[in-house]
Amino acid sequence: MTNLLIGPFNLYDLAALGLLVLCWLGIGWTTEHPPANRPSVGVLMEGYRREWMRQLVTRQPRIFDSAMMDGLRQSTTFFASTALIAIGGGLALIGNPERLSDLANEFALDQGPNVLWEARILTAVLFGANAFLKFVWSHRLFSYAAIAMAAVPNDITDPLAYPRADQAARLAINAAKSFNRGLRSVYFALASLAWLLGPAALAAAALFTTVMLWRREFASTARQALLENPPS
């Protein structure tokens, strides 16, 4: 490996990092743009969200809907806070990489110069930062959706009732997409930590995470449940 160095990195490190990014982008695209004959869980949930807003029009009172929206916003707040804490911890480690080197010596982890350790931690921090931004935007979109829901007329004969319900549904769908993107970034941030063990571990973690996410979206019991009596 010593004859394949590019600065502080070697080709195996760069290849594993490239695979990680490729898997992250690939599973995200596949999940959001699945084949028409095999929709993902995320795409199936879009239909349920639209049906939710259609049912909202005739539901009185709408306490259940407000409680649901409040729960979704609380979830995004929790994950955004967690991501921000993780970012702070990662930046603290980057500021003192010698501690990581000492830990590597103690546990016989893959060795390398300090800049390589910093790059490994920075990769996880960048995924965490992307997750934080996605969660914050998701929270904002859920707030927009809640306002749009409140603007849906109580009178079902009002010509604006169902169009406004559709607007609320689209906002909720976009909020869910942003939330799912944030979750994927969290998964791959955790996978990127395997780089501390070396490029082979990083590549294995990237592939494992991709397969896990694919199974949950396309071959899970949750997906099978959603396929039963889907909304029209």
What is the overall shape? elongated
Strand element count: 2
SSE order = EEHHHHHHHH
- Structural class by sheet pairing and helices: mainly alpha
How many helices in DSSP terms?
Answer: 8
User: What proportion strand?
Assistant: under 5%
Low-confidence stretches: none
User: How many separate domains make up the residues?
Assistant: 1
Q: What does the main sheet amount to?
A: 2 strands, antiparallel
Rg computed from alpha carbons, rounded to a whole number of angstroms: 22 Å
**How do the strands of the widest beta sheet line up side by side?**
1-2
Distance between the termini: 57 Å
Q: Helical content, roughly?
A: over 70%
Could you outline the blueprint of secondary structure elements for this entry?
Elements: E1 5-6, E2 9-10, H1 11-32, H2 41-58, H3 63-95, H4 98-107, H5 114-150, H6 161-192, H7 199-218, H8 221-227
